[in-house]
User: Fold this.
Amino acid sequence: MAIDIGRREFVTTLGGAAVGWPLVARAQQSAIPVIGYIAGGSPDADALLAAAFRKGLNETGYVDSQAVTVEYHWLEGHYDSVPALVADLVRRQVTVITTPATPLAALAAKAATTTIPIVFSAAEDPVQLGLVASLARPGGNVTGINYFSSELVAKRLGFLHDLVPKAVRIAVLVNPANALAAERTLREVREAAYTVGLQIQIFNAKTIDEIDAAFATFANERLDALFVGGDAFFFSRREQIANLAAREKIPAVFPSSDAVAVGGLMGYSSDLPDSSRQVGVYTGRVLKGEKPADMPVLQSTKFIFAINLHTARALGIEVPSGLLSIADEVIE
Assistant:
């Protein structure tokens, strides 16, 4: 069930339990720094990433429950709520805005304030997005982490082709509500598909029900395999997508290794929890007084290729030894 951010927020004080505070009560805590954390998924599905963010904060010394307040705002795929949410955070003058894996929110925040520091993580090139002037010297009030999802699209499609070489007609699932990620995925996957002679068919889904409907169409049209586009909402629904792929017996490659842990066949991505941890570290450094303009944008250096052999067997797929030899994680 989606959360109406206007009526309900998740607010967590580090080291304590999650509690909902009225806005007036939070305003009275002005002596304590407030972090506005905006994530595209849900609190349950993204718990690992939120924990990694807190770990990064802890590494900078923010471990006391009285040291900082983190307000968690979960979009659950409702990207249209971003402008109002950002406007509220800016109006209340939170100390820092963090947008892990949600560049739409980072762009909205940058457009709304030139004074509140913003720390992002983004799959897209942050310079091309207009978030920063350069990676080495971001300038302005924005910095963060680039975790290279778009550059991995061709690699993912190549892995899928290696695993199921007879697959020709590939479904590509994207979220049109997240236009940045959808456009990036389609641009990259079209080019990669042409190179290896694959045919792609595009499917849009921005809600839980639309994901179900997409899979019903996959089954009816007897598509050979599925390429799941990168999207924070899809990340939060990775178990649903993995289960549907298993039920419909569709080989699927995911934009994160986390999906493989819940039954997905194969995934390739940068280390997303580590990117979230780095967002936490950068946020802590900003709280200590560093300026985003002087903090270079970090780039992911660790990538994870994961295969679920149990799922492969259920699909009747024999994983080539060459793929197994390069896998970082193999789930039996």
Summary: Residues 1-29 have pLDDT under 50 and may be disordered.
